[in-house]
Amino acid sequence: MTRKSAGNIVILTGAGISADSGIQTFRGSDGLWCGHRVEDVATPEAFRANPALVQDFYNRRRRQLLEPSIQPNAAHIALAELEKNWRGDITIVTQNIDDLHDRAGNKNLIHMHGELLSVFCNKCETRFHCREDVTTDHVCANCQETGTVRPDIVWFGEMPYRMDEIYEALSYCDLFIAIGTSGHVYPAAGFVAHAGLNGAKTVEINIEESQVASVFDEHISGRAAETVPEYVKQLLTYPDI
Ligand code: OAD
Predict the structure, then answer these.
(1) pTM for the whole thing?
(2) Is 205 within 8 Å of 180 (Cβ atoms)?
């Protein structure tokens, strides 16, 4: 069997796929993330300088994610269908910290930037599932230390999760698709080049061209909730990639 006939697909998703579920993207027209500069809420330095502000910021994001109105949209559901029905491997690598791919049913899923519904202790490194607010006087349930539990989010200056697995999947994929990501943040913005150099076809799906649009073989323009189900239908109907 040749490598091409394996039909392995890597799908990188960003904030744009969850925009149609009602979650704000990172880089709005005002350049702020929910009213904050990213460096004030998404760096280890920010957490050390003002842990209350950072915990409050993620508490509000977590509460929003758990509102009944926030649900997977047609794009998340289509990708879960693709994983169930596709002949090769589907690996979803998401930069999103929401759990909408999980809820839609994708199993082979890498949360490279962490998860809003997870926290960990800076001292004993134990991880906990978390659906509640975390305050600065929170006591770690494992080591009993106070104020050491932080959001399980990869902040700027920290290493994204599971990079070895991601590069392995990128090296062996036949098709790389990026959905709803602006291409501002590396290493994710460099995945298209890595997949392309290893022989994959590369497709970008976005409402506008990203920073790295010129590196892709093909661009599909439109809202993820409309374009992704259509694209998945095409793939399942004509599975020769
Ligand atoms: P951005 O907010 O930078 O980009 C969102 C992209 O989605 C933009 O290119 C939009 O044009 C596009 N978009 C918006 N609505 C869309 C829709 N309905 N359908 C399709 N596309 C749409 O978000 P990311 O690229 O995900 O990192 O940001 C990458 C990382 O930067 C985040 O994971 C986060 C942030 O700092 C960390 O928190 C570590």
Answers:
(1) 0.96
(2) yes
